[in-house]
Amino acid sequence: MEEVAIVGVGQSTFVRGYDGSIRELAFEAYREAMADAQLTPKDIGASIICSAPEYDKQRTPAGVLAEYLGLVPQPTFYAESVCSSSSMGVRAGYSLIKSGLHDVVLILGFQKMSEITSAESQERMGRGADIMWESPFGTMMPAYYAMYARAHFEKYGTTEEDLALIRVKAASYGQINEKAVYRKGVTLEQVLSSDTVSTPLKRFDCCANADGSSCLILARKDRAADMPKKPIWILGLGAASASVNMAGRDSLTGLRCAQMAAREAFEMAGIAPRDVDVAEVHDCFTIAEMMAYEDLGFASPGEGKHLIRNKETYKDGRIPTNVDGGLLSKGHPIGATGGSQIRTIVLQLRGEAGEMQAENPRIGLIHNIGGVGLYGNVTILGTVTI
Amino acid sequence: MWDMEGGNPMGFERFGTVSFTSQTRVDGFIDRLLQGKVSGNRCKKCGFTYFPPRADCCSCLSSDMEWFDVVGTGKLLSYSTLSYAPTGFEKDLPYTIALVRFEGDLQIFGRLSKAIKPENIAVGMDLRVTPVKLSDARIAYEFRKP
Asked: Which of A137, A195, A241 to mutate to test the interface with B (most CBs of B within 10 A)?
């Protein structure tokens, strides 16, 4: 079997309102990844462009961005699963290489959330789930995750303070990540006293919107050997989907799609949750990180709260998680998020994470969710092939 | 489809505060709401039941469906009260969305009646579901105390 490595990574600074076009935003991550891998456009066999299209004014951005990046006439196409679009792009890119169709594939995730007005954004927020049967009741992403939080509190005794501790952790790392949109520290008291968005979630339980881009370059083993940076190997890939309507959910205390994706990724990599040295999880809301601890097997169901109470997910803890600030502080430019999470883990495994560096990690995991547990993606990376 | 004389919505466009779907083959759901019934449907071929109702069965791929009415009380699984709303729902604030489980593995997503005071909302409480008429000839359903 030909192994697949990540040989180049890049990310734009995540900002509140990017003052350029989407092609220029995409170029920022692209230039960094190409410099990282020391490649030129003709070295890229195909590109996969990832974003949530409801924020784009440009119809079919793939061809437009590929041209701007100098990746025409190579094949390019679009991958979309809302917030997990670029993880799905990696799944597609891995397949292109494994199949033998291409030996080097580039995955570019981007989102210019400020491409549309705040009013347009508010309107789209109402259509984030089942528009036929749920949106007519006035639903929003925070309200759905809030229902998971309430159910978790009731079943396991998790508290608002436990969730707030997750926000405090994220902010402590956002401060040292120069690419994060939110660079300030946050105290427990600040989180608990912030405005209620949808009970029991408050403003500080919600991630920071941002404009941003991410770029990953994947290569077949023989090509990876020629690249300047230590290759980081894709050891496991898991993906699953679930009912969009809450009426079809059999649990409100965890995300089934994440549990299934995790099981598949662990099985493919031949490792167990305890083998993971560093993780990036999809903390679009604090409750989402709490459920991720349990869905990934870092803690038993209901025991996730002890991980954060005991600071086991801090950089010096047992399983450092989101030590780049996560979606909560680094920011969440939808289509760029998965690629940014993967970049963070690649830097960790190379030992290039700077002030955020965990101690000598060898295996890293990325958990990236689309919608309210509609799409689940888990990716496992390692410093050596298994 | 709109009633040309009164300017009021007809069919599935009437569902909820703001509807995003105008045409569906299960718009009989709206007619039944008007008759005072909240209904799911069942595949006549394989017996699979659905809420929300569907025109097509994804279990056996038949499209021969029959209605049934949701009766009795269910248990509140979870809920959240919104302080912010998407465009078009601002005037409804604050409101509470909820998921309720009825007999026969039937789960229904909707809103809690505003007659239930926030301090009286509790996971596990008994609720029934009933149609509710909204302004401008719109219609939905909500959960109420039995």
From this structure: A137
The token pair at A191 is 């989180």
B42: left (phi over 0), alpha (psi -120 to 50) or beta: beta
Strand partners, A356: none
Is-contact B95 B25, C-beta < 8 A? Answer: no
Whether B20 sits inside 8 A of A123 (CB atoms) is no
Q: Which of A125, A131, A252 sits opposite B20 (nearest CB)?
A: A131
Tokens representing residue A65 in the block: 């961005």
Q: Report the predicted TM-score, pTM, of the whole model to 2 decimal places.
A: 0.96
Task: Determine whether the interchain pair A123/B87 forms a contact, defined as Cβ–Cβ distance below 8 Å.
Answer: yes
Based on the residue annotation, tell me whether A306 is a catalytic residue of this protein: no
State phi, psi for A225 to the nearest 5 degrees. Answer: -65, -25
Tens-level pLDDT at each residue, chain A (386 residues): 579 999 999 999 999 999 999 999 999 999 999 999 999 999 999 999 999 988 988 999 999 999 999 999 999 999 999 999 999 999 999 999 999 999 999 999 999 998 887 777 777 777 878 999 999 999 999 999 999 999 999 999 999 999 999 999 999 999 999 999 999 999 999 999 999 999 999 999 999 889 999 999 999 999 999 899 999 999 999 999 999 999 999 999 999 999 999 999 999 999 999 999 999 999 999 999 999 999 999 999 999 999 999 999 999 999 999 999 999 999 999 999 999 999 999 999 999 999 999 999 999 999 999 999 999 999 999 999 87
Please tell me the distance in Å from A334's CA to the nearest CA on chain B.
19
Beta bridge pairs of residue A381: A234, A364
**Do β-strands A196-198 and A46-50 pair in parallel, antiparallel, or remain unpaired?**
unpaired
Q: Which residues contact B146 (CB under 8 A, 6 or more apart)?
A: B73, B126, B127, B128
Q: Cα–Cα distance between A182 and A196 in angstroms, integer?
A: 20
A178 contact B CB<8A: no
Q: Is A284 a catalytic residue?
A: no
